[in-house]
Structures are given as C-alpha cells and as structure tokens.
Hints:
Blueprint: H1 10-29, H2 34-38, H3 48-72, H4 76-102, H5 106-128, H6 132-137, H7 139-159
Helix pairs in contact: 1-3, 1-4, 4-5, 5-7
Amino acid sequence: MSLLGSEGWGPPAVAAVAAILVAVAGGVATRTDAWYRRLRVPAWKPPDWAFGPVWTVIFLLTTIAAVTAWNGDPDPTARLLLVAAYAVNGVLNIAWSVLFFRFRRPDWALAEVAALWLSIAVLVLVTGRVSAAAGLMNLPYLAWVSVAACLNLRIVRLNAPFRGLA
Length: 166
C-alpha cells in the first residue's frame, strides 16, 4: 500500500504538521541550561547531540505509521481511535519535556514517563492491528522512551530531592 493511499496528500500533510508541532513544542520546552548541566548523570547517558537525530527518525517513523494505519482502515471509529491515541501521545510527549526541563522536576517527569510509555504501547497496538509494519514502526519510539525512562530514574536517584524552579 502506498503511503498516500487513495486520499492524496491530506493525511500525510496533517500527520507531518502534527508531528512537527509536537517536535517543536518539545524542543522549545527542552533547555540544556546551567541547571541541566549541573545534574549528575550516569556514564551511559547518550551524548546530547544524539537526541536530535534520534527524535527525527522517531517522528518520521511514527508519522508514516499513522498515515499507513489511517489509509489502511477507513472505518470512522477506527480513525477516531487512531487520532485520539496520537493526540494523547503528543500531549504526553510534550508534557515530559515541560516537567523535566521547564519545571525542573525529573521526579514528576519519571511518573509521567510511565504514561508516555503506555501511550506508545497503545500506538503500537492501534497501528499494528491495521498493519504489522505500522506497528513495528513505533517500536523504536518505545525503545527510546524505555531508555529515557531508565535514564530519568537514574537522574532522580543521583540528584533527588528536587524543588522545582529554584
């Protein structure tokens, strides 16, 4: 099946714009300022330069997965579920960055990352029921957030207690 399916550029354009908005909002919320640089981090933390390319690939794959699932199931109820799953995931994706970097609360972000992880598992299921390939395209996102959750946990353990913006 073609990425465009029978609906032309509409679904890919909407999905791409949504992905870009989530990526930009998360990027704006992410500040690697003096507070962040003072955090103790584990030796296995990926280098800061790696986050941009990894997130670019993740957003590209999740966008393709969403369009593939949209084109693969014209049922309005299934499409509503798909849009809802991606909307919830986008909000949770942005919220993690806000909690961690803007509120300076890695402890709150750690609690939130569990919801983010579950929302990605839902994306795998919702897209995978239409197309195994679409479901698989969300697995790098799930893997990256799994690593991020472990990193978040280590940061909390190495740096707690947190008092927010102080």
